[in-house]
Structures are given as structure tokens and as C-alpha cells.
Design brief:
The protein is of the alpha/beta class. The chain has one domain. Helices cover 30% and strands 16% of the residues. A ten-stranded mixed beta sheet has the order 4-3-5-6-2-1-7-8-10-9, sandwiched between helices. The longest helix is centred in the N-terminal third of the chain and has 36 residues. The N terminus is likely disordered.
């Protein structure tokens, strides 16, 4: 059961109440962010250009990424230092059956449903707010994405500590625990919780890292990749992005990470960026760089799941408005945007599965709750796989939101 917790996290099943942190066909320059085995149509007007092949500036931590990919993600066959070889072998043996089951559900079965419901021509740029460490779900839903951005309270973490890692790898078997307390605590572990989760996702999905860099955003939303001198000069530990979370024990330089990767055996490079940011209204107003960065992407494909129903709340109305203004297509669970907000914005909502009541008590009984319950009475069919939260009666449910 402890190993299974990894898979639960990667399906986006967190239960955080506070402000948010919270699986293939190889893409090419003309591919859209559609399902596995779907034909690759010519780009539509919202399709995103392929990621440039040239490497950006900044210190590349690829060697550290490859080590974490091997010892934590069980990716590749590189030899492991003798002091931790048996520990890594036990870890990989323990998670293997759960990884196999996950692959069957999300890389074999789910694509059949996605091929029927995800339209061709949607943007290859994917934005996943409240996404935590969940790169894997984005790859599962949109394997042809050229660029994926996840955003959450969790900060990426310092990958260099893996070089001195020994007995502590045991915590990985519970690192996917789906509570805010453990997500917060990950930021103080010897392994960088978010980076490790991303690399585990790559390994499960059949991808491998090609580069790893850290970056900041300025107030205009521009990316600045950090050089080794920037990182060396940053000697003060960063602070938590939520008052109820523990402060990380690594420097702020390791807050935001960019991973470049490709499908094993292929050369087309994809990009994932994780941005640590508080998505509350006040914080977005005080630090506008994230919204400007996201707005510059234009229309995008989106994922929302496991988001603690924060998008139902007035305190997160700024992020809700950004989503409604910029989505070309969105997959969500019930933590997405209710009809009372989406319909006036010109959206069509297509519910699947069953939803009777939120599984988190704070969301029960609100106007948004009643709105979502009414929506799911018009369900268009089953939800054949879990996508984020289940409801209070453990039903799978999934929501497609798109412009009319």
C-alpha cells in the first residue's frame, strides 16, 4: 500500500485544503496534444510551434537528473554505486507492479477513450495549475505536448543532494502520500520531492531527461535561466509559499525547474517547466510575473484536478478568469470550473462518470457544489479511468470544458 501511494499522487489525488500546490506517441513539430495513436493533423490556428532545439543558457544539472532518474525513478540501466545498489533494487522491485498497473490503465486503456474525446488541432502547449509534482498525468493525457507547465506551491528542490544519498531512499515508497502535510515535508527531504516526482513520471511514461535547468520569472513573465554563479551566490534558504507550510531547506534558486526530455529511442525534445507560485488573488496581484508568462502563451490546453476545489472560491477568481480566457480545451475532475462561471464565459461542459458530492467537507453545500451536482445529472457516459479526485461515494468522474 505504501508503494501504491506513489501512483495515487501521480493521478492527482491530493486532499490539500490550503492554497494550491496540490501518462505514448513521440511528438513532432506538427503534432498536437492529442491522445496516443491519434493521427497527427496539421496545426490549427491554436497549435503551438515546436520547442526550439537549441539549448538555453544556464547551468545544466543533467548529471544530477540522470542519477535521480536511475535511483528514484528506476529509469535506465546505469550502474548504481555499491552502497545504495541493494536499496535501489528493493525500491524498484516494490514499485514495479504498481507502475505496471498504472501503465496499463493510463497508457493502454485510457488512450482509447481519449482518442474519441480529445479533438485534433488543440494547442501543444499545456498548462496545469495546482499541478504539484504531476508531470505524468499531463503526459498520459497529452503525449504530444511540446511544452508543459505545472504550477503549485511545491518548490522543485536541490537535486545535488542525491550524490550523497544513501539509506534515505526508503522514504520514496511513501513520498507520493496524498496529503498536504507530506507534500510540504517533501521540501525538507534529502531527495528533491518535485524533481524526483517529475523524473519518476518520465521513467514510467517511457521518456528520459536530456537537460535540467533552474530559472526565475521577472515581473514581465520572462524566463531567466540561472548560471552556476547565481546558484552559488544564493545561500539563504527559500521560504514557503503558504503560511501553513514548512519552509524548504534549500535555496530559492531551486524553486522553479525546467526539464527537457524525449521519448526513449526518439530525438524530438519536449519541455516541462514547474513554477512554484501561490495562485491566490492577492499573491498574483503582488507578483504579476506568472500571469504575464502564462498570458504570453495565448490559447492553451489545460488540466485541472486534485485542486482542493479552490477554483470554486472567490479568493482564486483571478486564476479562474485566466483559465476561462485562455483555454482551448480542458480536462478536469470536479475541482474544475462550475457552469455558473464557465457558461457565461462561452464554454461548453461535458461531464462523464458520476459525481454526487465533493469528497472534501469544506466544498459541500456551496452554490458551486449544487451547480456541479446538477451538471453531472446530464453525464454523457462513464469515466473509464480515474482522473484526479473521486467523489464522496468513490465514483470516477471527468469533465471536458471547451469553447462553443
Amino acid at each position: 500500500m505504501r508503494a501504491l501511494a506513489i501512483i495515487l499522487l501521480l493521478t492527482g489525488c491530493s486532499d490539500r485544503k490550503e492554497a494550491p500546490p496540490s501518462p505514448a506517441v513521440t511528438p513532432d513539430s506538427s503534432a498536437v496534444a492529442g491522445p496516443v495513436d491519434a493521427p497527427a493533423p496539421a496545426p490549427g490556428k491554436n497549435a503551438t510551434a515546436a520547442i526550439p532545439a537549441e539549448a538555453p543558457a544556464g547551468k545544466d544539472f543533467l548529471a544530477d537528473a540522470q542519477l535521480l532518474y536511475r535511483i528514484a525513478g528506476c529509469g535506465g540501466e546505469a550502474p548504481v554505486a555499491e552502497p545504495i545498489q541493494k536499496v535501489v533494487e528493493r525500491h524498484c522491485k516494490a514499485i514495479a507492479p504498481h507502475v505496471a498497473k498504472f501503465r496499463e490503465v493510463y497508457f493502454v486503456n485510457a488512450p482509447k477513450w481519449l482518442a474519441e474525446h480529445v479533438p485534433a488541432g488543440i494547442p501543444t502547449t499545456v498548462v496545469y495549475p495546482f499541478g504539484g509534482g504531476d508531470l505524468l498525468s499531463a503526459l498520459a493525457a497529452f503525449p504530444k505536448a511540446t511544452e508543459i507547465t505545472t504550477i503549485s506551491l511545491e518548490q522543485a528542490g536541490d537535486p545535488r543532494r542525491a550524490a550523497t544519498f544513501r539509506k534515505e531512499i526508503g522514504w520514496l515508497l511513501q513520498f507520493g502520500s496524498n496529503t498536504s502535510v507530506n507534500l510540504s515535508a517533501q521540501q525538507r527531504n534529502n531527495l528533491p520531492g518535485q524533481v524526483t516526482s517529475f523524473l519518476l513520471g518520465l521513467a514510467i511514461g517511457g521518456y528520459e531527461p536530456t537537460a535540467m535547468r533552474f530559472f526565475t520569472l521577472d515581473d514581465k513573465g520572462a524566463i531567466k535561466y540561472l548560471e552556476e554563479s547565481d546558484i552559488t551566490a544564493d545561500t539563504q534558504n527559500t521560504q514557503s509559499l503558504s503560511g501553513s507550510w514548512r519552509d524548504p531547506n534549500f535555496a530559492a534558486a531551486f524553486r522553479n525547474v525546467e526539464l527537457r526530455f524525449h521519448k526513449i529511442g526518439e530525438t524530438t525534445e519536449q519541455v516541462h517547466r514547474h513554477i512554484a507560485w501561490n495562485l491566490g488573488n492577492k499573491e498574483l496581484a503582488a507578483q504579476p510575473g506568472l500571469l504575464r508568462h502564462l498570458e504570453a502563451k495565448g490559447k492553451v490546453t489545460m488540466i485541472v484536478k486534485g485542486a482542493s476545489y479552490l477554483l470554486w472560491e472567490q479568493d482564486f477568481s483571478t486564476m479562474r478568469k485566466y483559465i476561462l480566457d485562455h483555454l482551448a480545451f480542458m480536462l478536469s475532475d470536479s475541482t474544475g470550473i462550475p457552469p455558473m462561471y464557465a457558461t457565461p464565459a462561452g464554454m461548453v461542459l461535458e461531464p462523464y462518470g458520476k459525481f454526487t458530492m465533493p469528497g472534501l467537507p469544506h466544498a459541500v453545500g456551496s452554490k458551486e457544489d449544487q451547480d456541479m451536482r446538477a451538471l453531472w445529472k446530464t453525464s454523457k457516459g462513464p469515466a473509464p479511468f480515474r482522473f484526479g479526485y473521486i467523489d464522496s461515494e468513490k465514483h470516477h468522474h471527468l469533465l471536458i470544458t471547451r469553447p462553443k
